[in-house]
Amino acid sequence: METQILQPVGARVSDVALDDPELRAALPGLLAEHGVVVLPGQRVGNEEFLAFLRSLGELTFTQGETPVEGHPDLNLISNVGRETPPRSTFHVDTSYVARPPAYTALRAVSIPERGGATQFTNQYLALESLDPDLRERVEGRTITHVVTGVELEEGDESSAEHPVVRSHPVTGRPSLYLTTLSRCAAVSGLDAEEAASLVARLYEHSTRPENTLDHTWAPHDVVIWDNACVLHRADHSGVVGDRVMHRGMVADHAVPA
User: Fold this and answer.
1) Which pLDDT band holds residue 194 (cuts at 50, 70, 90)?
2) Phi and psi for 55 in degrees, rounded to 5?
3) Closest among 170, 199, 197, 206 to 184, alpha carbons compared
4) Residue 90 · residue 207 · CB < 8 Å
5) Measured between alpha carbons, how far is 149 from 86 in angstroms, rounded to an integer?
């Protein structure tokens, strides 16, 4: 197992299989520290992918999204048959629930001829590089995250408050925690105009190019990331060819023994 640290976020772990006990033992720490883990050369199907995810904890699924046929725990992400490309902005998966998913992973099924990278931001660095006056302003505040873009059933969670400065569940290390602007409905202690201005400043700061890793997909890639310390988006601009991913999510952070 060979590990290469990526900048400004992430690690690439090569020469290892998804079912390798060494990888599974190391992943919670790697994800907590580096946010994203790229696992190239994984010639696996959905059963092996699901077994890998279940080794990290209980699986979860975003209500209203499209499941993979025969695998209801996996979400289908595809541009096939679309006349217009999908839209994606930097976000945290399903942050509108009280217990957002800990980890999200993608398995590359079809890679386009050109384009289609997934981008990740380092939210530890975003907090550490925040202007001191702005950091003081956000300390102790919460953002109300709300659902957009999916149809929920009656009784499903659709809104949750989370700290703007959120401690990582494994390490306790603080990071900036927000999501796409349309899902940040309110900030505690601020009126609507002040809240929108503050969130826009935090979002712009978090997603600067110098804080962003572009992962260009290769066949048989598996990529997993920690939703507590990264934002992510798919870059659909200029995509040529089919882009198909299978996505799985783990509910809770695995804390090393």
Assistant:
1) very high
2) -70, -15
3) 199
4) yes
5) 12
Query: How far apart are the C-alpha atoms of 215 and 223, rounded to whole Å?
Result: 9
86: tokens are: 């999908």
Model confidence pLDDT, tens digit, residues 100-159: 999 999 999 999 999 899 999 999 999 999 999 999 999 999 999 999 888 887 778 889
End-to-end CA distance of the chain: 21
Specify whether domain 2-81+91-113+215-227+235-250 bears CATH 3.40.630.30.
no
**CB within 8 A of 81, min separation 6: which ones?**
none
In the chain, CATH 3.60.130.10 covers 2-81+91-113+215-227+235-250
Contact between 245 and 48 under an 8 Å Cβ cutoff? The reply is: no
Task: Annotate 23-50 with DSSP letters as a single string.
Answer: HHHHHHHHHHHHSEEEE------HHHHH
User: In the structure, what pLDDT confidence band is assigned to residue 85 with cuts at 50, 70 and 90?
Assistant: confident
- Output the DSSP codes for 105-168: EEEEEE--SB---EEEE-HHHHHHTS-HHHHHHHTT-EEEEE--SSPPPTT---EEEEESEEE-
48 vs 207: CA distance, rounded Å: 33
Residue 62's nearest CA partner among 211, 220, 227, 234 is 227
Which residues neighbour 101 within 8 Å (Cβ) at sequence distance 6 or greater?
60, 93, 94, 227, 249, 250, 251
Mean pLDDT of the chain: 94
Q: Which of 69, 62, 92, 118 is nearest to 249 (CA)?
A: 62
